[in-house]
């Protein structure tokens, strides 16, 4: 049974930082492109960042470039999202996701989803 368990969400003031973690189990972690998506109230889920197993291909949504950093530790089956300079518009539920190919992941074609963790940025 595949599980993606997110942690690290919370309430932070604008300009602050948070680090999200996603621990994966039940899958061969290194086989998957790992990614983060987010969904704000009343909006569609959107791609935030993705990273290949080797870390050589990393993609970001334009809205988070220069502020967010995705990384992964294949030995720990964990993917991270370091979020700096947070803005109120970053408020959303953040989801960890696993997919087969970068191009598909960016378009939302996902094999496995986590349950999500809430990030709230106050102004």
Write a brief caption for the model.
This protein has 123 residues and is mainly β.
Count, helices: 1
Silhouette: globular
Q: Give the biggest beta sheet.
A: 7 strands, mixed
Structural class: mainly beta
Distance between the termini: 40 Å
Helix content: under 10%
Which stretches of 5+ consecutive residues score pLDDT under 50? Answer: none
Helix/strand order: EEEEEEEEEHEE
Polypeptide structure, described:
With 123 residues, the protein is mostly beta strands. The model has no long low-confidence stretch (mean pLDDT 96). Helix content is 4%, strand content 50%. A hairpin with a 6-residue loop joins strand 4 and strand 5. Strands 2, 4, 5, 6, 9, 10 and 11 form a seven-stranded mixed beta sheet that branches. Strands 1-3-8-7 form a four-stranded antiparallel beta sheet, with no helix packed on it.
Features of the shown structure:
single chain, 123 residues, mainly beta, seven-stranded mixed beta sheet, four-stranded antiparallel beta sheet, 1 helix, 50% strand, globular
Ordered list of secondary-structure elements with their pairings:
Layout: E1 3-7, E2 10-13, E3 18-25, E4 33-39, E5 46-51, E6 58-60, E7 68-73, E8 78-83, E9 92-99, H1 102-106, E10 112-113, E11 117-122
Parallel strand pairs: 2-11
Antiparallel strand pairs: 1-3, 3-8, 4-5, 4-9, 5-6, 7-8, 9-10, 9-11
